[in-house]
């Protein structure tokens, strides 16, 4: 699927608008991180993922769920990601890395639900750049986790339920498997 063309209800929404740097260049960098084995896999999450499946919303940053290579110790470290970013001219800024001018937050997968969301991510295309995006069903489940249930996320769940071509049986199975409810 290519973002930027016309849409029908069987495909994710086609319009992504950013008030920041080059989203396509940020995606190229994420794909390079993966090919350089800095991360094992990734999926765009949060508000940017939402824009692929529902009406676009304004967002400040790009949230990316990642699977990191196995670490040598018990603690998860993003240091290899930051080293890679610095070596490629992408400076850290607060909790983000500025990748091609896009504030990008790299979030190690915190649980089994996020692992599934990354593994089952949709392989899409944005301006000729491959991108992995958390599917709408998993976005809803992630937004329904107890620690994530904010008013803003409840609104996003409503938008996804209204605006995307959901596989409701798949969503219900995900919610049941993880003990979640809308």
Can you put this structure into words, describing what you see?
The protein has 182 residues and is α/β, with parallel strands linked by helices. The chain has a single domain (2-134), classed as Beta Polymerase, domain 2. 38% of the residues lie in helices and 20% in strands. The protein has 7 helices and 8 strands. The chain has helices at 23-35, 46-53, 79-87, 112-119, 136-143, 151-163, 168-177; strands at 2-3, 41-45, 62-67, 92-93, 96-99, 102-108, 122-126, 129-133. The strands form 2 sheets. Strands 2-3-6-5-4 form a 5-stranded mixed sheet, with helices on both faces. Strands 1-7-8 form a 3-stranded mixed sheet. A hairpin with a 2-residue loop joins strand 5 and strand 6. The protein is globular. The two termini are 29 Å apart. 33% of the residues are buried. Residues 1-20 have low confidence and may be disordered.
Tell the overall outline. Answer: globular
Output mean pLDDT: 87
Q: Structural class of the helices, strands and pairings? A: alpha/beta
Which spans have pLDDT < 50 for at least 5 consecutive residues? 1-20
Largest sheet: 5 strands, mixed
Which CATH C-level class is it?
A: Alpha Beta
The residue fraction in helices comes out at 25-40%
CATH architecture: 2-Layer Sandwich
Number of beta-strand segments: 8
Content of β-strand:
15-25%
Could you tell me how far the N terminus lies from the C terminus, measured between alpha carbons in angstroms?
Answer: 29 Å
Task: Give the SSE order as H and E letters.
Answer: EHEHEHEEEHEEHHH
The radius of gyration is 16 Å
Number of helices: 7
Multimeric organization: single chain
The strand line-up of the biggest sheet is 2-3-6-5-4
Indicate how many domains the architecture comprises: 1
In CATH terms, what is the fold-level topology? Beta Polymerase, domain 2
């Amino acid at each position: 699927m290519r973002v930027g063309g016309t849409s029908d209800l069987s495909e994710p929404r086609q319009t992504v608008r950013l008030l920041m740097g080059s989203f396509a260049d940020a995606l190229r960098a994420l794909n390079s991180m993966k090919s350089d084995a800095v991360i094992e896999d990734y999926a765009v999450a949060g508000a940017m993922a939402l824009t692929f499946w529902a009406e676009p919303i304004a967002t400040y940053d790009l949230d990316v769920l990642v699977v990191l290579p196995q670490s040598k110790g018990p603690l998860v470290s993003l240091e290899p990601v930051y080293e890679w970013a610095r070596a490629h001219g992408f400076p850290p800024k607060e909790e983000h890395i500025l990748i091609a001018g896009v504030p990008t937050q790299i979030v190690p997968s915190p649980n089994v639900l996020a692992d599934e969301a990354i593994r089952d991510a949709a392989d899409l295309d944005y301006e000729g750049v491959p991108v992995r995006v958390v599917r709408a069903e998993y976005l809803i489940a992630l937004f329904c986790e107890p620690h994530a249930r904010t008013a803003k996320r409840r609104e996003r769940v409503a938008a996804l339920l209204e605006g995307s071509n959901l596989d409701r049986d798949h969503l219900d199975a995900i919610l049941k498997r993880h003990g979640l409810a809308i």
